[in-house]
Specification:
The structure holds two protein chains of two kinds. Chain A is an alpha+beta fold. Chain A contains four helices and five strands, in the order αββαββαβα. Classes of the chains: A alpha+beta, B alpha/beta.
Chain lengths: ~100, ~350
Amino acid sequence: MSKQQQYHGSGWKNLVMAAVSQKPSTDFLTGDWKTFMPVADFEKCVTCLTCVMLCPEGAARLDSNTGKVYFDLNFCKGCGICAAECPTKAIVMQIPEKDKAEE
Amino acid sequence: MTTTQNEQSNRKNSSLKLELSKPAMPKVEPYKQTAKDIALKPDLFLSGHRACAGCGPATVLRLVTKALRGPTIVTQATGCMEIVCSIYPYTSWGLPWLHTAFENVAANASGIEAAVKALGKKGKIKQEHIDVIAIAGDGGTYDIGLQALSGAIERGHDFLFILYDNEGYMNTGIQRSGGTPMGASTTTTPAGKVLPGKMEKKKPLTEIILAHDIEYVATATPYYWKDMMSKVQKGLEVEGSAFLHIFAPCPRGWRTDPSRSMSYSKLSVETCVFPIWEAVNGKRVLSIPSKMYALAPQKKKPVIDYLEGQGRFRHLFKPENKHVIDQIQQATDNHWQKLLKQCETTIR
Ligand SMILES: Cc1ncc(C[n+]2csc(CCOP(=O)(O)OP(=O)(O)O)c2C)c(N)n1
Ligand code: SF4
Ligand code: SF4
Ligand code: SF4
Ligand SMILES: [Mg+2]
């Protein structure tokens, strides 16, 4: 049987499986895309969770143990949405220390 | 790069496998949940996707997955959001997910819904009900996908169609679509000596959908995330077709600062460029953020506040193009007045 027949010759049940992406994208870190990183001032933060909701990466998160927000720098792309939308201006975008050293 | 390698090895035992195999979320209504509950719910649109920094549609999809009520199958037409979450061998979906072509996501959803029903009748699946969501961009909805969409909702398939509208064919390099607004410069409507960007108005898509007499049609935008999530939930609860039009800023295609995506989402409502409302059985009601401007019209902002800072509208600020801004203001006002009439009985 030719490959063609094997795949298409005898009904849909014999079709080969299509490509399947099998690894979670959390194995692919996007944190090194950023130039600036968010830093929160907990004196000002009122835990309104705006940053957690609006972050496109799911990198701004609420820590269930401490009850505080944090930023997963493995994924944060440094877009600055959290800092722009924070109602108390608790977040500032900074150049990471390690990049400062490289300058 | 050593940091990245370290980070990578640190994450070897990532909690992801757990996340992926978590049981379906309990049936709870997000609009009755506290923000804290929602924040602690795991995203099923996972980090590590390849969308540009500041991507509005990415925020939309994350929040949509937090609003689900139970077992769900997602199918996506090609476009930015389908590409960024499925770059082989990675997937950003913690849900059963099917890619489909550009034009037929609604047909795909119809098939999934029919298959689930058939399997249920034969007793081959345990779930009592499985929600089906179709997701497409404006290109995949306003233009090439409209025929499949019209067919699927006319047949009344039980699914929720989510349109994330970034107003252009972004994935292929910012071409115009039926959803691109008047005055926007795209690679196929370049602003220059001949034309000040796209000259046609945005296609009245939701009116076309409403004309199909389906039970639930709504518009939303992610800055008002609670409103958006409650609309996802309502769309899922409908037995039959539901349609949700979500306005989602795209910093790459709009040539805007990535940090401003959500402020444009907010401005679109404040200027009435994109009013948010819902229609249950054709009865249209303005949602609270838009209703504010019906009750206090003096608070409505001029469209110029929304156009400002967007590279795709930059040419409109040249003296010779000022009239286009006036036209946009006029068209926005007309559209808003018409909408107010349609919602008249419900505004107090
Ligand atoms: C039939 C067909 N024509 C063209 C393409 C190329 N194509 C892939 S994505 C895309 C644009 C998608 O635009 P939209 O639906 O608005 O999504 P966005 O990329 O803006 O998120 C195009 C033209 C295709 N995949 N199939
Ligand atoms: S947006 Fe600002 S105040 Fe709100 S949780 Fe985030 S850091 Fe805190
Ligand atoms: S800078 Fe952008 S990606 Fe990083 S945490 Fe803030 S919103 Fe998320
Ligand atoms: S081009 Fe726009 S929609 Fe596409 S990934 Fe980038 S920001 Fe998102
Ligand atoms: Mg688009």
